Amino acid sequence: MNTLIALAFVALPFLDIASLIKAGSLFGFLPTVGLVLGAGLLGTWLVRHQGLTIGRSVQATLAAGRLPVVEAFDGACLLIAGGLFLFPGLVSDVVALALLIPGVRAALRRMLARRIREEAATVLWTSGPGGIPQPMDGGDVIDADYEVVRSESDSPSPARAAPPAALPPGSAEPPTIVRPKDPC
């Protein structure tokens, strides 16, 4: 994957030059320059407009108490698109304009998330006897994101707290009630 990205950055200037030569021979010099300048101006305006929109979305997400993961990825795509608009060429402008389309960014985000999930190693650790962490072996494991709704130990009523006899062996705290999180 890294080799592919490096190859793309090396090949991009050559592809841009070749596309400018081909467009110049098809349309002429002035229309080609106008096309490149127009794409650059349009791209600059779109990057600025979408950047401000993403900035407001980041503020709203943070105000809601969530991490702005989607917005950070979209911002990175806009940063790359803005950099691509600096190259005077048609191929880089097309790639940059594609990065400005929210559906393209969403598809890239899903593809990257799938790749990270496939390559990431996950080890589930549990609390063993005496509170010593140990890797969990065997059994079914359900991978899920969760958020704590309330802990039995946070309950104001002593009647709600789990009695010590109901606690799992080796557990120092009462069970915590959790619910699944919504994926991004």
TrEMBL record:
Membrane-spanning residues: 29-47
Any Pfam family hit: FxsA
Keywords: Membrane, Transmembrane, Transmembrane helix
InterPro entries named in the record: FxsA
UniProt region (Disordered), positions on chain: 128-184
The UniProt record lists the keyword Transmembrane: yes
GO cellular component, as recorded: membrane
Compositionally biased spans, kind Low complexity: 154-175
NCBIfam families: PRK11463.1-2
Protein name, per record: FxsA family protein
Organism per entry: Defluviicoccus vanus
Lineage, broadest ranks: Bacteria, Pseudomonadati, Pseudomonadota, Alphaproteobacteria, Rhodospirillales
